[in-house]
Specification:
Helix 1 packs across helix 9 and helix 3 runs antiparallel to helix 5. Helices cover 54% and strands 12% of the residues. By secondary structure, the protein is an alpha/beta fold. It is globular and about 50 Å long. It contains nine helices and five strands, in the order βαβααααββαααβα.
């Protein structure tokens, strides 16, 4: 695989450690993007997607500066499946379009690319990539990380996890699995092993 550009999708449940895995891939020379950052970019103030969100949810989901109140939006969609579907129908097409553009651009440049895609299998986007890498953690570990990272309650974190596809389904559909239940040092070693398999295994 070392003689051509490789496109890697890094996926896994909320709080599993996908971003940390991507940090380690970046250290190894892979160009890294994050679909969640794309989602922020496409809903910048006055963008078409931003206006559609305001039209659906109302001004209540904005901050004083006019930007979106992401924490409130997350709370709304974890409790209301219709609201969740509406938000996804607005944001996902924009994110997928931007993702495809980045993949094409990096492929033209000949650089290896990894994109953190939380909803890879939910949106059937695996066809865009050469390799799928699933990051797996126990539910307890994910809850702990989400509460600390996002400053939310344990119940909010549990609600978010509950909305997502079961980890076992993702594991069955992935090329590589990384268990992130140990130290950060161990995780880095595991990422390096998989990197070597992807890029140097004949």
């Amino acid at each position: 695989m070392a003689n051509r550009t490789i496109k890697i999708a890094v996926t896994g449940g909320a709080g599993s450690g996908k971003s940390t895995v991507c940090e380690f891939l970046k250290k190894l020379g892979v160009i890294v993007y994050n679909a969640d950052i794309f989602a922020r970019d496409v809903v910048e103030k006055d963008s078409p997607a931003y206006q559609k969100i305001i039209d659906y949810f109302g001004k209540q989901v904005t901050e004083k500066d006019g930007g979106l109140n992401r924490k409130l939006l997350r709370e709304i969609i974890t409790k209301d499946r219709h609201a969740k579907n509406a938000l996804e129908n607005i944001v996902h097409p924009e994110v997928i379009s931007l993702m495809k553009k980045k993949l094409i651009d990096e492929q033209k440049s000949g650089r290896n690319i990894a994109i953190e895609v939380p909803l890879l299998f939910e949106l059937d986007l695996q066809y865009l990539f050469d390799v799928t890498l699933m990051v797996f953690s126990t539910k307890e570990q994910k809850l702990k990380r989400l509460v600390k990272r996002d400053n939310i309650t344990g119940q909010n974190a549990a609600d978010l996890i509950e909305l997502q596809m079961d980890d076992q389904d993702k594991i069955k559909r992935s090329h590589f699995i990384i268990q992130n239940n140990d130290t950060k040092e161990q995780l880095e070693k595991d990422v390096k092993k998989i990197y070597e398999k992807i890029f140097y295994q004949e």
